[in-house]
Design a protein that fits this description.
alpha/beta, TIM Barrel, eight-stranded parallel beta barrel, two-stranded antiparallel sheet, 11 helices, binds flavin-adenine dinucleotide
């Protein structure tokens, strides 16, 4: 079922999850174990992140440096296929502009359709430390709105080349939104204008970047509505489990923690796991009380903390 149908039909709170593929060389069992913890909470869907190739450097014994280009976490589509077909849980495959030509994206969409996967999250992608050279005979999507447009053209059977008697590919398309603005955007208003481009290109819903102060989410929704964005805006939450994350999360995701939460963690560092869970419970309860159909959890691979937040609802 499509994400948008899950939202339309929801009678109980929907808790969806986001997980990352294991690093190259690890077993699919890593992901299966995470999904086994999450499955009893009846997730309507699980997102699986995607990662472009990066440059990795290895110093040889003679002092020279070897540069290798590869994906640290390959396998997004395969993992989605396993979750959807083995666990019967809908998956949302993240698709990126960065590092993929339009032709490769079209191939990925054909593969997803064969696997029975009809949900994608269309993203620009985190800027890798390596910019794949796209051959002059290939084309690229620069912004997520371009990718949304490509996906939606397939709904009308418009492949990159004209194909007679082709199958139409129908995907539900989500896009990213940033309650505290995207780091490259000069201000929230400009970012929302660009978000509107993604909706106008045919996106069905928005999933937000993580936030730790619900006021930021509520303000973002208000600003989106003022900009005539009327699709569901699903709030994203990530539970912290170490004091170090008070620095690493703002550094990587450009989001802020409320002062009282920071003080509480710094005064009780040994209880950071419980404090992270308690904060997420407070956020979740307030979001659901505002009438939202559900919350999206950035599980990454820490399913146990998420389970603690939502076990009250099962
Ligand atoms: P866009 O919507 O393309 O926007 C990027 C920037 O360009 C913004 O500042 C925007 O305001 C601006 N912009 C957009 N359109 C225009 C335009 N026409 N003209 C000028 N400026 C414009 N990254 C990964 O690599 N893999 C993942 O799996 C992944 N999953 C994510 C899931 C969620 C829910 C979120 C919120 C983020 C995720 N990211 C992921 C991170 C994301 O790829 C980065 O934040 C990226 O920098 C921006 O992606 P976007 O799709 O929001 O980009």
């Amino acid at each position: 079922m499509k994400v948008i149908e899950h939202i339309d039909k929801a009678t109980n709170p929907l808790f969806s999850f986001e997980i990352v593929p294991p690093p190259r060389g690890r077993s699919i069992q890593d992901i299966v174990d995470v999904v086994k913890i999450l499955a009893p909470y009846n997730p309507p869907w699980i997102d699986v992140t995607s990662h472009p190739s990066g440059a990795f450097y290895n110093e040889r014994e003679d002092g020279t440096v070897e540069r290798r280009i590869y994906k640290k976490r390959p396998g997004t589509i395969g993992i989605c296929g396993v979750i959807q077909n083995r666990f019967k849980i809908d998956t949302v495959t993240h698709l990126l502009c960065s590092g993929f030509s339009k032709e490769e994206t079209e191939d990925a969409l054909i593969e997803l359709n064969y696997l029975g996967i009809h949900n994608i999250l269309a993203l620009k992608g985190d800027g890798p430390n390596y910019n794949k050279k796209i051959s002059k005979t290939r084309t690229i999507n620069q912004y997520a709105s371009d990718l949304v447009e490509q996906v939606n053209q397939l709904k009308n059977g418009e492949f990159l080349d004209e194909i007679a008697d082709c199958v139409k590919l129908d995907f539900c398309v989500g896009v990213a939104g940033y309650p505290e603005k995207h780091f490259e955007a000069p201000n929230l208003q400009t970012d929302i204008v660009n978000l509107k481009r993604k909706i106008d290109a045919g996106a069905d819903y928005v999933t937000t970047q993580m936030f730790y102060d619900n006021k930021n989410y509520f303000n973002f929704v208000k600003e989106c509505q003022a900009a005539d964005i009327n699709v569901p805006i699903i709030p994203g939450i990530k539970i912290i489990r170490s004091v170090k994350q008070l620095q690493s999360i703002p550094r990587h995701f450009y989001v802020n923690f409320p002062d009282d939460f920071v003080n509480e963690v710094l005064e009780n560092p040994k209880h950071v796991v419980e404090l992270g869970i308690a904060h997420a419970i407070k956020q979740t309860d307030e979001l659901l009380a505002s009438g939202l159909p559900g919350v999206h959890f950035y599980v990454m691979n820490d399913a146990k903390s998420v389970a603690k937040v939502i076990e009250r609802f099962v």
